[in-house]
Specification:
The protein is α+β, with helices and mostly antiparallel strands. It has 4 helices and 9 strands. GO terms for molecular function: serine-type endopeptidase activity.
Length: about 170
């Protein structure tokens, strides 16, 4: 499980190109989708919690982090899929175009839409969708398998890497 976005290079960290911004509202959506009650969320945040936005976020995996993790419970299912929605902010040069490179976990199908992000200005935010499709593997009861991959956005100067980790579990 020692898989991340890479080593920190201080010089490159000063000019990342893209960042994954996150707000307190994103964390509230995460808590709502994690089945916390509005009362529990208010205890944590000390603010009124509104979970109506959370359905738009979809599920807990859509917290706007660079890394993406999916866990599939097999239960005799043959094909399974999930998706991740991410928003990146251009903190690099205006009029930059990033192209995606997909390194899927072995034996899994990963697609990204769109495959290019064209920014017109600094500070602009764009969304992308990552779909993960898996075919169940034969596992013994109570066992699991974890595989890793990544997606990388590059404009020729910057490379922004997002790890993708998929676990398949066969319940007892």
């Amino acid at each position: 499980m020692d898989f991340g976005a890479g080593h920190v290079h201080p010089q490159k960290a000063m000019d990342p190109g893209l960042v994954y911004d996150i707000s307190s509202y994103d964390y509230i959506d995460f808590l709502c989708n994690s089945n916390y009650t509005t009362k529990n969320i208010q205890v944590i945040t000390r603010k009124h919690a509104d979970c109506s936005r959370a359905k738009k976020a979809g599920h807990t995996g859509n917290l706007n982090f660079p890394s993406m993790t999916a866990v599939f419970q097999l239960y005799g299912k043959r094909k399974m899929s999930t998706h991740f929605i991410r928003t990146v902010t251009n903190v690099g040069e205006a009029k930059s175009v990033y192209t995606v490179s997909i390194k899927p976990p072995r034996g899994m199908n990963v697609t990204v839409e769109p495959m290019k992000l064209a920014f017109r200005r600094e500070g602009q935010k764009l969304n992308f969708l990552v779909r993960v499709k898996v075919v169940a593997m034969k596992l013994s009861a109570g066992s699991s398998i974890t595989k890793s991959g990544s997606i990388e956005w590059s404009d020729g100067k910057h490379v922004v890497r997002s790890p993708l980790v998929v676990t398949m579990q066969e319940p007892l």
